[in-house]
Amino acid sequence: MKMVNDVHDKVKAILAESQLSAILVFGADNVQYLAGAPLPFLPLFPDRPVAVLWGKGEEPVAVCPDLWETAVISLSRVKRTWGYDEKPGDPTTAARAVTKLVEALIPKGGFIGVDFDRISVRFCEALKTALKEYTLVSCDAGLRELRAVKTMEELELLEEVAYRVDQAIFGVAHHVLVTSSRS
Q1: Are strands 81-84 and 61-65 parallel, antiparallel or unpaired?
Q2: Which pairs from 143-152 meet CB under 8 Å and 24+ separation?
Q3: What confidence score (pLDDT) does residue 53 get?
Q4: What is the pLDDT of residue 88?
Q5: Digit-coded pLDDT (tens) for 148-177
Q6: CA distance linking residue 82 with residue 66, whole number of Å
Q7: What is the DSSP letter of 56?
Q8: Which residues pair with 81 in a beta bridge?
Q9: For residues 169 and 132, what is the distance between their CA atoms, to the nearest angstrom?
Q10: Residue 55 Ramachandran class (φ > 0 left, ψ -120 to 50 alpha, else beta)
Q11: Could you tell me the pLDDT band of residue 3, with boundaries at 50, 70 and 90?
């Protein structure tokens, strides 16, 4: 795969080259990666799943509790949401919302890559039952590979973080040396 400048282009290229009709992710790490922004509250509420559905030739859509829609839109590159009325502890509510979105955007019989390693067995079963007219395939390995190959933007951010960490270490080392030389 050629070097691309941002994650958005990278995901679109992967979808265009694959037989998948869409990618559907639920894991907080994968949602944050595809959404393009930190959403620090996601891991704190595992009973209120947030998903990103990215169809081939489409822009990503986030599925989230109604109350979170504004936060998701303002903190991420995702500009469309599909809200659901949350019922903590009941994964079927989120599964129904995901199902309605998939049916609205993806032709029946389509192949959808799902990060199965990031969802509970109960939610997975609800999803498979609701989306029985689609072929759900694991995209966990593909997502790991997608995230491992860095864009230029990601490489620049990593260099910036490394520089700042180096400066912090040098500052602490200097402080320790100056302080210990006085004793």
Answers
A1: parallel
A2: 143/23, 143/25, 143/30, 143/33, 143/115, 146/10, 146/11, 146/14, 147/33, 149/1, 149/10, 151/3, 151/4, 151/5, 151/6, 151/7, 151/9, 151/10, 152/3, 152/4, 152/5
A3: 96
A4: 72
A5: 888 787 788 889 988 888 888 888 887 777
A6: 8
A7: T
A8: 62
A9: 54
A10: beta
A11: very low
Tokens of 98: 């995901």
Contact 58, 50 (CB under 8 A): no
Residue whose structure tokens are 């990060």: 115
Q: How many Å apart are CA 81 and CA 79, to the nearest integer? A: 7
pLDDT tens track for 92-149:
788 899 999 999 999 999 999 999 998 888 888 889 999 999 999 999 888 888 888 8
Where do runs of H (alpha helix) occur along 80-132?
Answer: 91-105, 121-130
Name the DSSP class of 76: S
Burial label, 60 (beta-carbon count in 10 A; 0-12, 13-18, 19+): buried
Q: How far apart are CA 168 and CA 174, in angstroms?
A: 10
Q: What does the pLDDT read at residue 108? A: 95
- The Cα–Cα gap between 84 and 68 comes to 10
Dihedral over Cα of 59, 60, 66, 72: its sign: negative
CB 94 within 8 A of CB 123: yes
Looking up tokens 């990618």 gives 23
